[in-house]
Write a structure and sequence with these properties.
The protein is mostly helical. It contains 6 helices and 2 strands. A two-stranded antiparallel ribbon has the order 1-2. The longest helix is centred in the last third of the chain and has 25 residues, at 122-146.
């Protein structure tokens, strides 16, 4: 992929995250944190995981080695999560905007949250973060449906249609 491809992909990721957060706005505080059966215990915890993973990878790309994801308890409500995510989105946009073709091949050395060392090129890590978010946003859709809420389309094609001024669905 090219630098421009990643810029578009991260525009999509931000768009999809914002749409997902917006689709959670009608939830009551109890629904937002209600324990449910999924990879994470609630809508809040799933969203916090998506946020946390994006934050963690950006930290690694800046050669910082956090030893844990932020706790879902750090986000008592949707507004607190949305505020932190807006800051992260600005930081991701700055990072993605600074990419060069050679930078995509930069080797990133980091330790996972258990302390195991890894290294690899930046390019597949960039793809992974967006793919990871897509996977867990799909879980949020299922949780919203179980709560009787209405999810919104966050498919990549919907992003491209909206950018082209076409109807999403």
């Amino acid at each position: 992929m090219t630098v421009d491809d990643f810029r578009v992909l991260y525009e999509y990721n931000s768009w999809a995250n914002r749409r997902t957060l917006d689709s959670c706005a009608p939830l009551t505080p109890e629904q937002f944190t209600r324990e449910m059966v999924s990879s994470f215990r609630s809508v809040r915890d799933t969203l916090a995981h998506i946020y946390g993973a994006e934050w963690l990878w950006l930290e690694r790309w800046h050669e910082r080695i956090p030893n844990a994801l932020p706790s879902a308890a750090d986000f008592p409500d949707l507004d607190s999560l949305r505020a932190r995510w807006a800051e992260l989105e600005r930081n991701l946009r700055t990072f993605i905007g600074s990419l060069t073709p050679a930078g995509l091949q930069r080797v990133i050395k980091y330790k996972n949250t258990r302390g195991t060392p890894f290294e690899g090129h930046l390019e597949p890590m960039l793809s992974h973060v967006v793919n990871h978010g897509t996977y867990h946003r799909g879980q949020v859709v299922t949780l919203l449906r179980q709560l009787g809420a209405k999810p919104v389309a966050t498919d990549l094609i919907a992003f491209h249609r909206e950018r082209a001024g076409q109807p999403i669905a």
